[in-house]
## 1
Amino acid sequence: MADFFGKMKDTLNKGVATVSTGSKTMIEKSKMNSCIKTLEDEIKQLSEIMGMKLYNYCASNPDGDIPRAEFVSFCAEISGRNEQIKQYRAKIAELEAEMNQVTGTAASNVPVTCTCGQVNSPGAKFCAKCGKQLF
Protein backbone atom coordinates (compact mmCIF):
# COMPACT_ATOMS: atom_id res chain seq x y z
CA MET A 1 0.00 0.00 0.00
CA ALA A 2 2.87 2.37 0.83
CA ASP A 3 4.34 1.60 -2.60
CA PHE A 4 1.05 2.63 -4.20
CA PHE A 5 1.02 5.96 -2.37
CA GLY A 6 4.69 6.50 -3.19
CA LYS A 7 3.96 6.02 -6.88
CA MET A 8 0.91 8.25 -6.58
CA LYS A 9 3.01 10.96 -4.94
CA ASP A 10 5.67 10.68 -7.68
CA THR A 11 3.01 10.92 -10.36
CA LEU A 12 1.45 13.99 -8.75
CA ASN A 13 4.85 15.65 -8.29
CA LYS A 14 5.67 15.00 -11.94
CA GLY A 15 2.27 16.42 -12.94
CA VAL A 16 2.80 19.58 -10.88
CA ALA A 17 6.31 20.02 -12.32
CA THR A 18 4.95 19.52 -15.83
CA VAL A 19 2.16 22.07 -15.41
CA SER A 20 4.46 24.59 -13.74
CA THR A 21 7.21 24.24 -16.34
CA GLY A 22 4.68 24.08 -19.15
CA SER A 23 2.99 27.32 -18.20
CA LYS A 24 6.30 29.12 -17.72
CA THR A 25 7.54 27.76 -21.04
CA MET A 26 4.36 28.81 -22.82
CA ILE A 27 4.58 32.35 -21.41
CA GLU A 28 8.25 32.70 -22.34
CA LYS A 29 7.66 31.29 -25.83
CA SER A 30 4.75 33.68 -26.30
CA LYS A 31 6.91 36.65 -25.31
CA MET A 32 9.71 35.57 -27.65
CA ASN A 33 7.31 34.94 -30.54
CA SER A 34 5.89 38.42 -29.98
CA CYS A 35 9.42 39.87 -30.15
CA ILE A 36 10.07 37.89 -33.34
CA LYS A 37 6.88 39.26 -34.89
CA THR A 38 7.89 42.82 -33.98
CA LEU A 39 11.35 42.32 -35.49
CA GLU A 40 9.82 40.84 -38.66
CA ASP A 41 7.51 43.86 -38.95
CA GLU A 42 10.49 46.20 -38.53
CA ILE A 43 12.37 44.32 -41.26
CA LYS A 44 9.38 44.71 -43.55
CA GLN A 45 9.19 48.46 -42.82
CA LEU A 46 12.94 48.93 -43.36
CA SER A 47 12.74 47.02 -46.63
CA GLU A 48 9.84 49.15 -47.85
CA ILE A 49 11.62 52.39 -46.89
CA MET A 50 14.82 51.22 -48.57
CA GLY A 51 12.89 50.25 -51.70
CA MET A 52 11.11 53.61 -51.90
CA LYS A 53 14.38 55.51 -51.36
CA LEU A 54 16.02 53.53 -54.12
CA TYR A 55 13.07 54.06 -56.45
CA ASN A 56 12.93 57.82 -55.76
CA TYR A 57 16.67 58.18 -56.19
CA CYS A 58 16.69 56.28 -59.48
CA ALA A 59 13.62 58.17 -60.75
CA SER A 60 15.20 61.55 -60.02
CA ASN A 61 18.79 60.59 -61.05
CA PRO A 62 18.51 58.03 -63.86
CA ASP A 63 22.19 58.31 -64.75
CA GLY A 64 23.59 58.90 -61.23
CA ASP A 65 25.34 56.50 -58.93
CA ILE A 66 23.34 55.01 -56.10
CA PRO A 67 24.39 56.35 -52.64
CA ARG A 68 25.67 52.97 -51.50
CA ALA A 69 26.47 53.95 -47.88
CA GLU A 70 22.84 54.76 -47.12
CA PHE A 71 21.66 51.38 -48.41
CA VAL A 72 24.44 49.49 -46.66
CA SER A 73 23.23 50.91 -43.34
CA PHE A 74 19.70 49.66 -44.09
CA CYS A 75 21.13 46.22 -44.85
CA ALA A 76 23.10 46.25 -41.59
CA GLU A 77 19.95 47.09 -39.61
CA ILE A 78 18.01 44.32 -41.31
CA SER A 79 20.86 41.84 -40.70
CA GLY A 80 20.94 42.82 -37.02
CA ARG A 81 17.24 42.13 -36.66
CA ASN A 82 17.60 38.79 -38.47
CA GLU A 83 20.33 37.84 -35.97
CA GLN A 84 18.03 38.74 -33.06
CA ILE A 85 15.29 36.56 -34.57
CA LYS A 86 17.78 33.69 -34.87
CA GLN A 87 18.71 34.08 -31.18
CA TYR A 88 15.07 34.11 -30.08
CA ARG A 89 14.37 30.96 -32.10
CA ALA A 90 17.36 29.24 -30.48
CA LYS A 91 16.02 30.18 -27.02
CA ILE A 92 12.60 28.81 -27.97
CA ALA A 93 14.23 25.52 -29.01
CA GLU A 94 16.04 25.40 -25.65
CA LEU A 95 12.77 25.96 -23.79
CA GLU A 96 11.09 23.19 -25.77
CA ALA A 97 13.97 20.81 -25.02
CA GLU A 98 13.71 21.68 -21.31
CA MET A 99 9.98 21.05 -21.39
CA ASN A 100 10.51 17.70 -23.12
CA GLN A 101 12.98 16.75 -20.41
CA VAL A 102 10.56 17.65 -17.61
CA THR A 103 7.59 15.89 -19.20
CA GLY A 104 9.64 12.87 -20.20
CA THR A 105 8.87 13.25 -23.85
CA ALA A 106 11.77 13.20 -26.23
CA ALA A 107 11.81 14.95 -29.55
CA SER A 108 10.94 12.43 -32.25
CA ASN A 109 14.44 12.36 -33.75
CA VAL A 110 16.52 12.53 -30.55
CA PRO A 111 18.03 9.31 -29.18
CA VAL A 112 17.32 8.61 -25.49
CA THR A 113 20.29 7.74 -23.27
CA CYS A 114 19.65 5.56 -20.24
CA THR A 115 21.44 5.97 -16.90
CA CYS A 116 23.29 2.76 -17.72
CA GLY A 117 24.85 4.49 -20.73
CA GLN A 118 22.86 2.71 -23.45
CA VAL A 119 21.78 5.00 -26.29
CA ASN A 120 18.25 3.98 -27.23
CA SER A 121 16.25 4.81 -30.32
CA PRO A 122 14.10 7.97 -30.35
CA GLY A 123 10.78 7.49 -28.62
CA ALA A 124 11.91 4.36 -26.73
CA LYS A 125 10.05 3.81 -23.46
CA PHE A 126 12.42 1.19 -22.00
CA CYS A 127 16.19 0.70 -22.21
CA ALA A 128 17.25 -1.98 -24.71
CA LYS A 129 20.18 -2.98 -22.45
CA CYS A 130 18.87 -2.99 -18.87
CA GLY A 131 15.10 -2.70 -19.34
CA LYS A 132 14.77 0.40 -17.15
CA GLN A 133 11.89 2.73 -17.96
CA LEU A 134 13.10 5.82 -19.81
CA PHE A 135 11.76 9.26 -18.92
## 2
Amino acid sequence: MALKSRNKVSPNFNMSSMTDIVFLLLIFFMLTSTLVTTNAFDLVLPKGKGVTVKKQTVSVNIDKDFNYYIDKDPVSPGLLEQRLQSIMTGADEATIVLRTEKSVPIEKAVFVMQIAYDNQYKIVLATDPR
Protein backbone atom coordinates (compact mmCIF):
# COMPACT_ATOMS: atom_id res chain seq x y z
CA MET A 1 0.00 0.00 0.00
CA ALA A 2 1.43 3.35 -1.10
CA LEU A 3 1.13 6.20 1.36
CA LYS A 4 0.98 9.75 0.02
CA SER A 5 2.40 12.54 2.09
CA ARG A 6 0.19 15.52 2.67
CA ASN A 7 3.04 18.05 2.84
CA LYS A 8 3.97 18.78 -0.73
CA VAL A 9 6.60 21.36 -1.55
CA SER A 10 5.48 23.70 -4.28
CA PRO A 11 8.14 24.35 -6.95
CA ASN A 12 6.75 27.90 -7.57
CA PHE A 13 8.50 30.94 -6.13
CA ASN A 14 6.32 33.56 -4.43
CA MET A 15 7.35 37.07 -5.55
CA SER A 16 4.98 39.11 -3.37
CA SER A 17 7.45 39.65 -0.53
CA MET A 18 10.19 40.57 -3.00
CA THR A 19 8.04 43.26 -4.63
CA ASP A 20 7.18 44.69 -1.21
CA ILE A 21 10.86 45.07 -0.41
CA VAL A 22 11.56 46.69 -3.77
CA PHE A 23 8.75 49.22 -3.29
CA LEU A 24 9.95 50.06 0.22
CA LEU A 25 13.48 50.63 -1.08
CA LEU A 26 12.14 52.78 -3.89
CA ILE A 27 10.19 54.95 -1.48
CA PHE A 28 13.18 55.22 0.85
CA PHE A 29 15.54 56.39 -1.91
CA MET A 30 12.98 58.82 -3.32
CA LEU A 31 12.53 60.46 0.09
CA THR A 32 16.22 60.63 0.93
CA SER A 33 17.19 61.99 -2.49
CA THR A 34 14.97 65.03 -1.96
CA LEU A 35 16.80 65.80 1.28
CA VAL A 36 20.18 65.93 -0.45
CA THR A 37 20.83 69.38 -1.82
CA THR A 38 23.42 70.43 -4.33
CA ASN A 39 25.74 73.37 -3.94
CA ALA A 40 23.24 75.65 -5.63
CA PHE A 41 21.08 77.64 -3.25
CA ASP A 42 17.92 79.47 -4.12
CA LEU A 43 18.92 82.81 -2.64
CA VAL A 44 17.89 86.34 -3.40
CA LEU A 45 20.94 88.48 -2.86
CA PRO A 46 21.99 90.94 -1.58
CA LYS A 47 19.25 91.03 1.08
CA GLY A 48 19.90 89.15 4.29
CA LYS A 49 19.76 89.29 8.05
CA GLY A 50 23.31 88.13 8.62
CA VAL A 51 25.99 90.25 10.17
CA THR A 52 29.18 90.78 8.25
CA VAL A 53 32.59 90.30 9.75
CA LYS A 54 33.44 92.52 12.71
CA LYS A 55 37.19 92.38 11.96
CA GLN A 56 37.40 93.31 8.33
CA THR A 57 40.77 93.65 6.74
CA VAL A 58 39.70 95.03 3.36
CA SER A 59 36.52 95.72 1.45
CA VAL A 60 36.13 95.05 -2.28
CA ASN A 61 33.23 96.84 -3.94
CA ILE A 62 31.76 96.28 -7.41
CA ASP A 63 29.32 98.89 -8.68
CA LYS A 64 26.65 98.58 -11.39
CA ASP A 65 29.13 99.70 -14.08
CA PHE A 66 31.44 96.78 -13.11
CA ASN A 67 34.10 99.06 -11.61
CA TYR A 68 36.20 97.52 -8.84
CA TYR A 69 37.11 99.42 -5.68
CA ILE A 70 39.32 98.45 -2.77
CA ASP A 71 37.72 100.32 0.10
CA LYS A 72 37.04 103.58 -1.79
CA ASP A 73 40.01 103.53 -4.19
CA PRO A 74 39.26 102.46 -7.78
CA VAL A 75 41.37 99.61 -9.14
CA SER A 76 41.48 97.81 -12.48
CA PRO A 77 40.62 94.08 -12.52
CA GLY A 78 44.14 93.22 -13.69
CA LEU A 79 45.76 94.88 -10.67
CA LEU A 80 43.19 93.74 -8.11
CA GLU A 81 45.13 90.65 -6.98
CA GLN A 82 48.41 92.56 -6.60
CA ARG A 83 46.76 95.31 -4.57
CA LEU A 84 45.02 92.78 -2.32
CA GLN A 85 48.28 90.93 -1.74
CA SER A 86 50.07 94.14 -0.76
CA ILE A 87 47.27 95.10 1.65
CA MET A 88 46.90 91.64 3.17
CA THR A 89 50.57 90.98 3.92
CA GLY A 90 51.04 90.71 7.65
CA ALA A 91 47.34 90.52 8.45
CA ASP A 92 46.43 87.95 11.12
CA GLU A 93 43.05 87.00 9.68
CA ALA A 94 43.02 88.01 6.05
CA THR A 95 39.33 88.65 5.41
CA ILE A 96 37.74 90.30 2.39
CA VAL A 97 34.22 91.71 2.53
CA LEU A 98 32.77 91.62 -0.98
CA ARG A 99 30.04 94.18 -1.66
CA THR A 100 28.29 94.00 -5.01
CA GLU A 101 25.19 95.61 -6.41
CA LYS A 102 22.21 93.41 -7.19
CA SER A 103 22.57 93.82 -10.94
CA VAL A 104 26.21 92.67 -11.08
CA PRO A 105 26.60 89.29 -12.82
CA ILE A 106 27.89 86.45 -10.66
CA GLU A 107 31.03 86.09 -12.82
CA LYS A 108 32.31 89.40 -11.46
CA ALA A 109 31.89 88.22 -7.87
CA VAL A 110 33.41 84.82 -8.66
CA PHE A 111 36.46 86.62 -10.08
CA VAL A 112 37.12 88.19 -6.66
CA MET A 113 36.30 84.92 -4.87
CA GLN A 114 38.85 83.07 -7.02
CA ILE A 115 41.53 85.60 -6.09
CA ALA A 116 40.69 85.07 -2.41
CA TYR A 117 40.76 81.29 -2.83
CA ASP A 118 44.10 81.32 -4.63
CA ASN A 119 45.69 83.43 -1.89
CA GLN A 120 43.90 81.60 0.97
CA TYR A 121 42.01 84.66 2.18
CA LYS A 122 38.65 84.44 3.86
CA ILE A 123 35.86 86.10 1.90
CA VAL A 124 32.40 87.20 2.98
CA LEU A 125 29.61 88.37 0.71
CA ALA A 126 27.96 91.37 2.31
CA THR A 127 24.17 91.55 2.27
CA ASP A 128 21.58 94.20 2.96
CA PRO A 129 20.02 93.51 6.38
CA ARG A 130 16.72 95.22 5.51
